[in-house]
Amino acid sequence: MATVMAATAAERAVLEEEFQWLLHDEVHAVLRQLQDILKEASYRFTLPGTGTEGPARQENFILGSSTTDQVKGVLTLQGDALSQADVNLKMPRNNQLLHFAFREDKQWKLQQIQDARNHVSQAIYLLANRDESYQFKTGAEVLKLMDAVMLQLTRARNRLTTPATLTLPEIASSGLTRMFAPALPADLLVNFYINLNKLCLTVYQLHPLQPSSTKNFRPSGGAVLHSPGAMFEWGAQRLEVSHVHKVECVIPWLNDALVFFTVSLQLCQQLKDKISVFSSYWSYRPF
Amino acid sequence: MKIFLPAVALWGKKAPSHSITTIMITDDQHTIVTGSQEGQLCLWNLTSELKISAKELLFGHTASITCLAKAREFEKQPYVVSAAENGEMCVWNVTSGQCIESTTLPYRHTAICYYHCAFRMTGDGWLLCCGEYQDIIIIDAKTLEVLHTFTSSQSPDWISCMCIVHSMRIQEDSLLVVSVTGDLKVWNLSSSINSIQERKDIYEKESKSLDLPNCRTIRFCTYTERLLLVVFSKCWQVYDYCDFSLLLTEVSKNREFFAGGEVLAAHRIIIWTEDGHSYIYQLLNSGLSKSLYPVDGRVLKETMYPHLLCSTSVKENKSYPFVMGYLNERKEPFYKVLFSGEMSGRITLWHIPDVPVSKFDGSPKEIPITTTYTLQDNFEKYHTISPSIIDGFCAFEDGAGSPAVTSSMFIPDFDKLICGCEDGRIFITLALNAAKAGLLEDNALFRKDSLPYKVLSGHNKSVTSLLYPHSHSSKLDQSWMVSGDQESCVIWWDIFTEEVLHKFFLRAGAVTSLLMSPEIFTLKDHHIVCCVCNDHSVILLHLEEKTCLLKAQKHLSPVTTIKWHPVENFLIVGCADDSVYIWEIETGTLERHETGERARVILNCCEDSQFLKPEPLIAFASETHKHKNAVYRTSSSSQLGTLFYSIPHAESSSKLPVTASFSSLFNVLPVKTKSSNVDFHVLFFDLENLVELLLSTQLNSFSSSNSLHGSDILKRARSTFEKRPLTLKRSKTSNSSISGEGQMKNACENQNQGDIPGKSFEENEGIKRHKKMKSSKKAQFIPPRRVDINLMMDTAKLLLSCLLPWGIDKELDNLCIQHLNILRLQYPVSLGLVSNEDHFSLMLPGWNFCNPGMKEGCSVVNLFSRKVLDLSNKYIAALPSQPEVTGELESDSSQGLDTIVYLLSKLFLVNKLVNMPLELAYSTSSHYKKESVTNKGKNTGTNNSSFYGNLRNGKTEFHFPDADLSLMKLVSGWRHQSVQVIEVIQAVLLAEVQNMKTLRKTSINSPPLSMVDNRNGEMETLGKIEQSEQLELQCIKNIPLQNEETKIETGEATSPLSDKITRGFLNQDSNSATVSVVKHDSHSNSANFQEAEDMPDRCVLEESESPGKQKRHPWMAKLCLCKVC
């Protein structure tokens, strides 16, 4: 106890001063840095209303895979939406080539990108409310702001890193099946998703299970990627996945965005840690 | 359904933190509802003079509240829906604080609108929700299930705000929304009701891009039915609803961010900002009049400009974001109110005049603040004496007030409360005594300085976490306790000798939590303590070897989960950034680091995770509830096919894991809302357990008093217990000598062994300990009987004091104090109620001033509402019709213990009765239907269990003649009249006590002497002998009659209520086992042994010969049976 008491008034004054510096200068420096990073990230998403006017730019990506050449395709990404998709599928049985593309009038929103973009813009909004003119009075205030920003950033990142786990009936009932011209054959299911910096397309080939089949039917649960043999019930029919083809393409700016998210999250956490260092010195008051 | 789990809050000086994130005022302007970042809702009473006082705190959400909205037509049902960050949704009744419905959906809502269209819709209406997902989700307001969605065909995106437009002109309700990218969209509401029910896709009717981000509010002017107010963070605009043409744009000045707005009247609007300012504008038509015809073929364009009339402001602005709202009421007694809630927990109200005008010179007028209030104000105003749990002994010591409690823990085995303080001291005290000192009126017994307590000093900084290893693994020594502090120092204590066994210096951050390795995980047969520090490090300590096993300091963000891999000796650490670190414990190396999907898989694969942010209160409430649910489930399953008697066994297996945590008569839980300090403690009573234990002791005391030296022993036992606080020190060795007696039935019998009074306490503990070990090995459910009778009585008395209304009648108070030997309350207690599984409401200090008709300074303390008096009068009116009752009561009232037991069991019964589902209590239709209803009732959690039912068969309820049927009928009838559970409980208690009083007046042979001598064992036992004899006689008289009754009731249901009672039998007509029960119940003595054989439960065994057994009443048996099925 005595040693603590020896933390004299002088030491306390120094700490107080340092804390004030932290609140008045350092916090704003970090916030500015954060804002810059996030702005940079949001440009990657081509946020509307952040300067870039007009329609978002179009990018073409070629789908490929190291393991299979059954599926080939070209995707056109416009911001958070797939505006065109041309997919060629070589049927494994008869080597027949199947071609299908998006209907002209339709776009497919990539929900993951949209959500990530919206989370980032919310984080930017939170930071914009606290510019240099704002005086932070307590550390708790900074912590609360950081928590709110980090919550948005974590969600943004998680949306990209963890694709939704869907069940096969959910994939079948999604609007994606209606997007194609010519219409998808009944024994095909497709799904687009983002996994980290990659845009993935999975094509499931199905075959109906005979009612007399000796296999016992067990509907599969939700998964990002279903494996061959997964079964489900659709309409009155029982279906089984016979082949799965997964092709993907790297979207460079998603990689950038992910890096920005990670860096800004670390910045936030570091600022939080700096603030809480002082909490032990002023445990008696809401620092 | 609301279950009365008696809980009393012990507040500290500081109010719990409540950072308001959302606020609303109910339509009747009586209640303000706020949601907080901490996850609680607070109900505030709003008087007609616009005075605020806090009423209740609602626990149930585990994350920050994002929005609130009304969930029904408010005049019919005062329901409000709340949504949290993690997707939880809850519908609350804001007058009773009860949770009606709850669910968790994978959607984060930011706004909810209630929509109901009476003539086109069935059901209770819809909740239209928007949030962090595309478009609008429609949720059923009653069931909280997702009904359908509104989808947009063009650029679907998140919706940031919405409003419902009821237009008389076009006879169509529409939903107006603005998306985050600034697209205005309109959906038809009333005409799409059918398509929603048919689950067709519904696309927007219109869509228009407003080209501005961050829309905060959209409002339709119902006065002109033309104007549309849209508030963005940087500007606000007015549109024409007919063609969505822009009429006006006003950009924010001095870097203000707009947060919302509302239409006050035709062409008058109010706009508020994020820092708590608001502005009232008059919208004026500019010179371009309607007569001007469109030039160059364009449509008529009318423009407006705003004129600032009034403004409001707050003094300390710019520190926290504000959430504001405006309530526009045109009906007479109501006001136009602008309200705001702050992060700091402050609520501010402005009364907006009906016709706001500017000053004479045209400059804007400032509208003054009408009221401002915080939770802390409530505490200071009504909470004159601080009952913080350690104040009792801290305050007198240094005079400067007690230090804040930073961590605390309750050890039920020893009734000990351990509090770590911010100054580094750790206090150990008896929990019940501390609670009593805080709640009850001063008495010589509980003088502040006479409270026994111990201080452990060893820490220099505030004690941030505590751990009692024995509660995690019974193999560990009971004297051990581990504490960690701010300076990263962990101390291993012996709490009995107050010794420091070892000090560990971790050289890391402040210890945020201490965990025990699970029982299955042992490293070379040793248990490990895991310390989580705020510098994101995890440190494993080995207590016995006094070594540090592993220092894991690589984590970049705070640790959220700890998992143990038992086979490969891995420690799996989950962090807040969703990454996972796997450490090998023996070598201390980082084995793997994973993020994203793979991390999630790794975390999911291990079952025994220890989460670092538990919600103690909610977890506890749900735990007790689960414990009860488990019972219903097993009893229902076993009821289906097998014998009735097997139920207790089935229960025992399912109950075991839960009872371990809830074995005591009461429990003290520290509640931390957000801050580092413990905000307050909640004392939970287990009424069921208490009644049951008291009854068994009562019986035991009968039997012991029947034996020759009974009174002698009892007397000695009492004197021993009186010494209890003095003999806190216990010797560890003393238990060996008595190990043979481990099978002792209960505390009372334990006393028989204690020949030397001074030693017996220690020995008692020895026995208890031994028994605990044994019972855990046996893995069989036995409610631990090691609770001593004194503690039991004290708990019961405290509970009664908390429930009784004091000061209604002086005589009554004195009667209670003298006769029942319970003490007056210092001030009204804050009771807690559990509703709908794990939702908990807690009254706040000053709740008693929220009720209309309650005046300040009135001598009445703790009366829940005026209604209680009426109810209890009704109850009394129904009560004295039976002469039998009076006779029994008389004999009862000659001793405190029995009366207390009687009162408690009555409360228990009433509580059960009130909580029974309505259908169950009132069903008169076919038996088949009833069966299904009851099955449902069980799952939803009626408070009944066959086990307790059986117990009470044997020994409860001396007073269940026919008059009680009418009483019970009366009580269950109250449920229809929106009477709350606590009101019923208090009314019954009051009535029973009053009845006791009147009886005492009329009776000649009950001198007050015996009351005074209540503590004297001899008097009491004498009384008991007398009573047991009486009861014996009475039972013999009753037996033939009972048989008749049984026959009648099983044969034919006559009245609705008896129908209810017999339902149990009718349901199980085919079940032969049930029939045997009936028989067995009506033949009293001979069957006892049979039952004893069938139920190898200790308490039944020991009862079989006691006279109390004969007190069984067929009516009770039936009630119990129907509870089972």
What key phrases describe this protein's structure?
heterodimer; A: 287 residues; alpha+beta; six-stranded antiparallel β-sheet; four-stranded antiparallel β-sheet; 10 strands; B: 1125 residues; Thrombin, subunit H; Methylamine Dehydrogenase, Chain H; nine-stranded antiparallel β-sheet; five-stranded mixed β-sheet; 28 helices; 51 strands; 32% helix; disordered C terminus; repeat (chain B); WD repeat domain 72 (chain B); Quinoprotein_ADH-like_sf (chain B)
Please explain how this structure is put together.
- Chain A has one domain (2-282).
- Chain A is an alpha+beta fold and 287 residues long.
- In chain A, a hairpin with a 2-residue loop joins strand 7 (188-195) and strand 8 (198-208).
- In chain A, 40% of the residues lie in helices and 25% in strands.
- Among the domains of chain B are: 19-104 and 329-383, Thrombin, subunit H (Beta Barrel), CATH 2.40.10; 385-510, 7 Propeller (Methylamine Dehydrogenase, Chain H), CATH 2.130.10; 687-699 and 789-849 and 862-880 and 894-918 and 966-995, no CATH class.
- In chain B, the strands form 11 sheets. Chain B has a 9-stranded antiparallel β-sheet with strand order 2-3-4-5-51-50-1-49-48, with helices on both faces. A 5-stranded mixed β-sheet of chain B has the order 22-23-24-25-29, with no helix packed on it.
- In chain B, helix 9 (710-722) packs across helix 23 and helix 19 (946-955) packs antiparallel against helix 28.
- The radius of gyration of chain B is 33 Å and the shape is globular.
- The model of chain B is unreliable at 289-299, 395-400, 613-663, 702-785, 881-894, 918-963 and 1003-1125 (pLDDT under 50).
- At the A-B interface, helix 3, helix 4 and helix 6 of A face helix 5 of B.
- Chain B: InterPro entries: Apc4-like_WD40_dom, Quinoprotein_ADH-like_sf, WD40/YVTN_repeat-like_dom_sf, WD40_repeat_CS, WD40_rpt, WDR72-like, WDR72_alpha-sol.
- Chain B: Residues 868-1046, 1059-1107 form the WDR72-like alpha-solenoid domain.
- Chain B: This is WD repeat domain 72.
- Chain B: Residues 532-593 form the Anaphase-promoting complex subunit 4-like WD40 domain.
